[in-house]
């Protein structure tokens, strides 16, 4: 086991929990993950021997980062659908549904002027500011200028298809300069949704997609009124998915948000094209869009990730999206049967490996595997002292003496195993349980003391 | 306006927001609420003049508590259904539904032995410890020993109906000694639910209810399997509600948790008896119980409050219950129509005045009215500096210079009106937005600095 000290930069030590399949979370206790200077995972040692840790600790230039007792490392959570510019509007949607929500809360001019920002606005400058902000913060992001040349109010619409394409290309060029290898930030082609795009614009964007190799994101089949609108606007297409397909916008590089009411034909088409789905349960409940049948999509072999869809969704937390994905799946199961339910493991798979695959990053992030990059959270909960009983797990015994995460909304009593701890985190956790965040090996957030 | 200084103890000054009807939240800006030493509201002055505040400030023994800019007072939120002893299990339910959840997670012996404590356990001592704990903390609580003389595992069952009644009476006597006037803590008669109570026990508890004047709480019609079980156990009753009614347990002092699948006949019976409903949306989604038709109950004139139902529900937050009540109502509206949706105002009414009326406290708490008691929260959000634009509201202008609530999950940008601030609090808020809590005029919680 000869590893060059020049290569090993940081060694993370402790318990690592990640998805190894849709149904299974693996718990790697007393393990180590070695990460090089570029943020790449070189080694996953499970379990790690004390002698090896000692040897590493002596090597020059190597930092050891240990999880505290009861804490665990978890892959970074991935949001596959968020409208950054709408964040200030979070929670303000009244009893609206999609189309009136857009007109009442989303399009009004105060919003784009207020927010220089994922889905950016339709403004080139603010879209580029968002890309720069993400890059400077060390965050991964696909940033798309929102294309819309019809059906939106005049003040919030591209002049014509040509201008819309030209502005999209400007944004793509900006990102290519900002991050030439696309290591963190990339541009993403973003027709808002079929009703606000002309056929010409969609075809132009489809061509640009084929030519540039960029990903594309849009909305599909969120709401019944929207579906009827699409049917009336595109009578030549037999369904919503076909509208995108005819424009060359359905490929394995396409991220389709919502997909609540897809027909069998559409599911078959999406599957054939290899397009991916961003499931947005909080938004779909809040705007009464319906309950997406995620199990059906997964059973078809379609790749699914989670989206917060702020501000159709009221929370920017992917943990909340995962939690609500399990709740929505229970409402689905009332009519579709028991097997529709998503488990804790499945919801967290969608939030990590699922999201990574939606964005074509399945070899880069989403788990702790050699060759992937170190995108990770350190998660901690609050230990409530209890002298009487305890488990046999040494880490947890130790944890009882320490305070894993300070004040958090997740209370542990010492008898929980790791799986139960993860369930508690999913159902009661929030940002207070996230003690540190790394992206591509760089620490981008630490919880204030 | 001659108010004796001996009477006025504390004067709260700032913005007060409370329900004046199911559909309407009233915003009292620049107002004052005067509270006497016993915690009773003597005066609601709206708006309050500066000269009056100056006069009060000079009176000996009077304290003035001012809300900061952008902060507001809100009536204390009321949880009408929580199993205190199950709190450590929050978030641990897998894919279970009611009956298997009870057997797998809830009844196992480690729980009662681990937790000396609402719904307490079936143990007299631990029930009384819970009552004492609430009383010492200055919290209001109805604490009930959980009665169950059948259908539960041996280790978690009362020996027989007579013992069950005797133990219930012991707990009632304990509370009567602890808090003779029942100003904060009262005992509540608590048959767990029909399947775990013999006819004899329920009749005995019904008699005790009539004789003691105490409230009664139990579960009803949570889950279809449970309903079938009740039908098979009580073939002489035409429905679930009738089981309780025959035992004399349905009265205007009865709190029925869940009521997800009540039939028309049962709704009519519940209405006739004046019994109240505790709606538990988080639990009903988590355990796939179904979606209670709250609008129907409200339209019938039945009183409804909210319950967290920990740990069937994974969150002890009534704000989360209110939030999920709006989400569940949207799932209901998918089949029952638009009018099923609950608004922000309605959800917060259920969390305050609705809950108060469920517990017979409608003249005591739930709003800011003369003669009620000062049960209140001070709510603050986080202001995000924005130099460009602002509103005309002076309080909000000031707020932009200050930080309303420190670090909270609710970001304000300065353009929100009070109604929008409340919506943001409902949908994004948590305990970090609660800066102070008073019960009966006494401060029982303050957010750590």
What does this protein look like?
Two copies of one chain form a homodimer. By secondary structure, the first copy, chain A, is of the alpha/beta class. Chain A is 36% helix and 20% strand. In chain A, strands 6, 7, 8, 9, 10, 11 and 12 form a seven-stranded parallel beta sheet that branches. A four-stranded mixed beta sheet of chain A has the order 3-2-1-4. In chain A, strand 14 (382-383), helix 14 and strand 15 (411-412) form a beta-alpha-beta unit. The longest helix of chain A has 19 residues, at 318-336. At the A-B interface, helix 12 and helix 15 of A face helix 12 and helix 15 of B.
What's the structural domain tally of chain A? 2
Number of strands of chain A: 17
What is the level-2 CATH architecture name of the largest domain in chain A? Alpha-Beta Barrel
Q: What is the name of the CATH topology of the largest domain in chain A?
A: TIM Barrel
CA(first)-CA(last) distance of chain A? 38 Å
Q: What is the CATH class designation of the largest domain in chain A?
A: Alpha Beta
Oligomer: homodimer
Structural topology:
2 copies of one chain form a homodimer.
Chain A: E1 8-21, E2 24-36, E3 41-45, H1 50-58, E4 63-66, E5 72-75, H2 98-106, H3 110-114, H4 124-136, E6 141-143, E7 146-147, H5 161-178, E8 185-191, H6 199-212, E9 215-220, H7 224-233, H8 240-246, E10 254-258, H9 264-273, E11 276-279, H10 281-286, H11 294-299, E12 304-306, H12 318-336, H13 344-358, E13 376-379, E14 382-383, H14 394-401, E15 411-412, H15 418-428, E16 434-439, E17 442-446
Parallel strand pairs in A: 1-4, 6-8, 7-8, 8-9, 9-10, 10-11, 11-12, 14-15
Antiparallel strand pairs in A: 1-2, 2-3, 5-13, 13-16, 16-17
Helix pairs in contact in A: 4-5, 5-6, 12-13
């Amino acid at each position: 086991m000869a590893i060059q000290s020049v290569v090993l930069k940081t060694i993370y030590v402790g318990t690592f929990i990640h998805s190894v399949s849709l149904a299974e979370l693996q718990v790697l206790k007393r393990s180590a993950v070695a990460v090089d200077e570029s943020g790449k995972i070189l080694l996953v040692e499970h379990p790690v021997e004390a002698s090896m840790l000692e040897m590493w600790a002596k090597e020059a230039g190597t930092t050891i980062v240990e999880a505290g007792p009861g804490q665990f490392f978890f892959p970074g959570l991935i949001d596959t659908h968020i409208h950054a510019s709408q964040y200030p509007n979070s929670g303000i949607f009244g009893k609206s549904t999609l189309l009136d929500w857009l007109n009442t809360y989303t399009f009004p001019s105060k919003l784009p002027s207020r927010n220089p920002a994922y889905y950016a606005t339709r403004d080139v400058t603010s879209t580029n500011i968002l890309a720069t902000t993400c890059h400077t913060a060390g965050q991964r992001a696909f940033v798309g200028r929102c294309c819309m040349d019809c059906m939106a109010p005049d003040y919030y619409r591209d002049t014509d298809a040509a201008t819309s394409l030209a502005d999209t290309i400007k944004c793509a060029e900006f990102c290519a300069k900002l991050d030439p290898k696309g290591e963190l930030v990339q541009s993403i082609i973003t027709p808002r949704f079929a009703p606000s795009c002309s056929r010409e614009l969609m075809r132009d964007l489809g061509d640009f997609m084929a030519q540039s190799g960029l990903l594309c994101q849009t909305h599909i089949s969120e709401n019944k009124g929207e579906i009827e609108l699409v049917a009336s606007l595109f009578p030549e297409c037999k369904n919503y998915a076909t509208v995108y397909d005819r424009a060359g916008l359905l490929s394995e590089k396409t991220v389709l948000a919502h997909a609540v009411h897809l027909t069998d034909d559409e599911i078959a088409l999406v599957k054939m094209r290899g397009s991916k789905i961003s499931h947005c349960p909080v938004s779909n409940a809040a705007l009464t869009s319906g309950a997406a049948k995620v199990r059906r999509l997964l059973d078809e072999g379609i790749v699914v990730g989670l989206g917060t869809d702020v501000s159709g969704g009221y929370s920017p937390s992917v943990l909340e999206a995962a939690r609500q994905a399990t709740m929505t799946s229970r409402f689905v199961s009332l009519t579709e049967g028991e097997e529709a339910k998503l488990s804790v493991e499945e919801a967290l798979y969608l939030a990590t490996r699922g999201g990574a695959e939606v964005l074509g990053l399945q070899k880069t992030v989403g788990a702790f595997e050699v060759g992937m990059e170190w995108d990770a959270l350190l998660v901690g909960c609050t230990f409530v002292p209890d002298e009487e009983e305890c488990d046999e797990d040494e880490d947890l015994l130790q944890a009882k003496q320490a305070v894993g995460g300070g004040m958090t909304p997740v209370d542990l009593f010492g008898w929980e195993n790791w799986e139960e701890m993860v369930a508690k985190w999913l159902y009661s956790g929030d940002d207070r349980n996230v003690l540190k965040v790394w992206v591509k090996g760089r620490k981008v957030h630490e919880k204030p003391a």
